[in-house]
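Example record for the data management plan.
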Amino acid sequence: MQGLTDFFASAGAAGAVGLISLVCAVGIWLGKLRVGGIRLGVTFVFFAGIVAGALGVRIDPAMLSYAESFGLIIFVYVLGLHVGPGFVSAFRHGGAMMGALGLVLVALGTLLALLPVWTGHMVLGEALGVLCGATTNTPALAAAQQEFASLGRPEGGLEAALGLAVTYPVGLVGVIAALAVMRVLFRVGKSAGGEVSEDEAFIASFEVTNPEIFGKLMRDVAVAGQRSFVASRVWRAGKVILPTGDTRLQAADRLLVITRPDCVEALTTLFGERDTTDWMKEDIDWNALDSNLVSERVLVTRKDINGKHLGQLHLRERFGVNVCRVKRSGIQLVATPSLVLRFGDRLTVVGGRENCSRVAAELGNAIKALDEPNMITIFTGMVLGLVLGYLPVAIPGMSVPLRLGLAGGPMVMGILIGALGPRLHMVTYVTTSANRLVSSLGLSTYLACLGLEAGPHFLETVVRPAALGWIGYGALQAVVPVCLVAAVSMRLFRRPFSATAGMLCGAMANPIALEYVNDTLPGDKASVAYAAVYPICMFARVLLAQLIVMFFLT
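Corresponding structural encoding:
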């Protein structure tokens, strides 16, 4: 063991890279083990680093600081780039309320964490560490440590790292325990994940029985209804018609419509009646509905299409097809003319087989084009994120300006570029596998360095009587706010359990708890809610960590 330690300490950069890689490999391997059906995943790297540091393994402090910062920057930027498109889409269609509930959870947890500081039972660094551990939020810890260092109090950052190390396991398990309790209290069944979210497109069919729209053009009916919908098919006298804006509605027409859940009731009134067919089932064979029309999914892989509005392409007029839905970042969107298309979008196109093939050629539909990420966008965004994180923001009453730092700046820039980049014709698409590779690499490196940094002081901290109080208080922060906000979401706002659970996991930055929810509930509603809430709550925690340090130390 001593010889291995000497190698890592004396081999310079090679030794540092070797040690960090070894810690990551051991941690990731251990993270694959399941305990009670739950696995810790990449977060086990943190504990592997703590063990290595406690055993006396050391590397050059400058190398440790560089690797820790670089890993954090990569992780938060790619994370922001990935969730940006889905975040904006979900936030516009029902995600605002979920985001507000998530921020309430953040506020409750922060106030609860500051109580022992105000009463003199904890120092600031310890309280912030317990908060970051209970919420499994390492970027917030990084922001707090950076602020402590900038104010000449690096010991506060070390105290925060130790507090997180002690309470991190409690945070992982506490949220899962709270969700399990809420499932029992609200009697949630195994099919709860099948509920339809307001964030996604909803498919329904209507029969035209309203005399006021007999003989009217489809486009005029759409304007009069003032609801976002796309008519995919019309059944009339035993035949299937591909509707256009010039199609005149007749009595007894049956329409297949793609809309949002909150528009269904109004459309029922508009058309007359809604039938009982469940069009949201995953096993529907759309091509078996009729012999003349087919339904195909087409990928947007032409770079000159990136950033254009769907209506600009005039696909219906040029090719005689209807675009019904657009799948982006796991979310099904209604294909309205004003929708801005992105590289990597998957369009559901209905029309003749030959016409659908022509649309595929128009949009690209080349899967191989998605395999190569645009590295210029990634590196340019990281540079802009670092600049944004360094810019000072003056706050009245504070002697030191606020900076988003290494954690906040790249994350905000990633979200902005991911959400708005296509409008500037920037290709921001990254495949799921590439995103996971880069984000896992960054997070693993950061957690390994964080563990190595906290490891030498971990054992002496754990045996202190105060550590037991940290664990208890961390459990309180991980469970109580989650249960309170869950009750408000489900009782007061009537939100389904799947969406509520995803929102809670996102607000607590707990992907392990999200994995538990996805393993126990069908569908992806929890993941959609997680993506809508995670960025804003993560940013709020990063910002609050800095503001709290500035408030108490200046």
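Summary line stored alongside the record: The first helix runs from residue 2 to 10.
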